[in-house]
Design a protein that fits this description.
Elements (H helix, E strand, L loop, with lengths): L5 E7 L3 E2 L5 E2 L2 E8 L9 E5 L25 E2 L4 E2 L4 E5 L31 H14 L5 E7 L1 H12 L4 E7 L7 H15 L11 H7 L2 H14 L2 H8 L17 H13 L5 H13 L9 H5 L5 E7 L7 H13 L5 E6 L7 H4 L5 H9 L1
Parallel strand pairs: 5-8, 5-9, 6-7, 9-10, 10-11, 11-12
Antiparallel strand pairs: 1-4, 2-3, 4-8
């Protein structure tokens, strides 16, 4: 069978009422689908992406060599099997890959919103997706799955649309963003804001695509440190030096340094800095218990079967944060969940990299 990759954009003219009290209208959502929808629409799996991800979760675009970010997990015969499931992944509001974000033109003008764009929360991202599914005439789905910020969205779905998904699979995530993660985001935000080329938000996007933004690259390097772990770095790079550099050259580099440089500088040519500020803001203010008396009050709303997957050496969202959710569920008498801690040294990015460690868990969750 083929993956049957299709990319679409839907345009919405009804106002979207945001958690902040502000309104977004009109807005677009770009999304991608894989596989085929069955007759009674019971085979839908929603995939939610992380901070710098996009709707392009699997497969290859023509003329490109890099597949979608979860290509190892989604496709014919893979854990999220497109021979059985119809998979939808949409680009979140505030991002820069087709859905409405800070660099989208503000209606009725053609000038981009920039700072006039409202602050978007994870709950808003999920609400917009729910409206998209309504338009696609999909009113219940088999499962929602995501890692990191994708896991935040999956958990928000479980609480705010309790009868929407049969199963929720949330990995490498938390119930509320903790100071450690907020601190890493702060470094990235400050690096962007203090870069003269950012021009206080009034940069020329075409110029950045060409040259990148060095401040943002530095912030991204800090981020990358939080995605890995001391163990995975030691395994990946040891103390290897770049073969072309001399040990006593001031700017000679360890391999770990050139890895961070490559990932930092490259990144700024394809990801918009204002989107980065808005999405890290959404991650920072994420808290499942907001609007409820407590986390357990929020969790009481969940009716889906819940799969919580953490990774032992995740420094960004520690496995203890996922355990807290499990403990609260236990306290309120919810027996319809499963908590799995994956034995991994890789760090936070395990959910993108070490698929072989958890793909069977995903398969079991979907088919079980």
């Amino acid at each position: 069978m083929s993956l049957n990759l299709q990319t679409h954009t839907e345009h919405f003219t009804n106002p979207l009422y945001l958690e902040s009290g502000r309104i977004l209208e009109p807005y677009d959502i770009t999304y991608e689908t894989y596989g085929r929808l069955n007759e009674n629409k019971s085979n839908v799996v929603v995939v939610c992406h992380a901070l710098t991800g996009s709707h392009h979760a699997a497969g290859l675009y023509e003329g490109e060599s890099k597949p979608g970010w979860w290509d190892g997990l989604i496709g014919p015969g893979k854990a999220i099997d497109t021979d059985n499931y119809f998979v939808i992944c949409s680009n979140v509001l505030g991002s820069c890959f087709g859905s409405t974000g800070p660099m989208s033109p503000q209606h009725p003008h053609h000038e981009p919103y920039r700072y006039k764009f409202p602050v978007i929360s994870i709950k808003d991202m999920v609400k917009a997706q729910r409206i998209l599914f309504d338009r696609l005439d999909i009113h219940r789905v088999h499962a929602i799955i995501g890692g990191s910020m994708g896991g935040m969205q999956a958990l928000q779905f479980a609480i705010h649309y309790p009868n929407f998904a049969n199963k929720i699979i949330a990995m490498a995530t938390t119930h509320a963003t903790q100071p450690w993660a907020i601190a890493f985001n702060k470094v990235a935000q400050e690096s962007i804001l203090n870069d003269p080329d950012f021009k206080q938000g009034y940069y020329d996007p075409a110029l950045l695509k060409e040259q990148g933004l060095s401040g943002m690259a530095v912030g991204r390097m800090a981020g990358h440190i939080s995605f890995l772990s001391p163990e995975s770095m030691r395994e990946k790079f040891a103390r290897e030096y770049k073969l072309t550099d001399g040990l006593y050259e001031l700017f000679g580099k360890f391999q770990v340094e050139s890895y961070l440089e490559y990932n930092g500088y490259n990144f700024t040519k394809w990801f918009d800095p204002l989107s980065y500020l808005y999405i890290t803001k959404a991650i920072n203010i994420y808290d499942l218990s907001r609007g409820f008396d407590s986390l357990s009050e929020a969790l009481k709303r969940i009716t889906s079967q819940l799969y919580l997957i953490s990774f032992k050496n995740d420094l960004l969202f520690k496995n203890t944060e996922m355990q807290e959710i499990a403990q609260e569920l236990e306290k309120i008498g919810n027996k319809n969940y499963k908590y799995i801690d994956i034995d991994s040294n890789y760090g936070h990015d395990s959910f993108l990299v070490e698929l072989e460690k958890f793909e069977h868990n995903v398969k079991d969750a979907l088919n079980g």
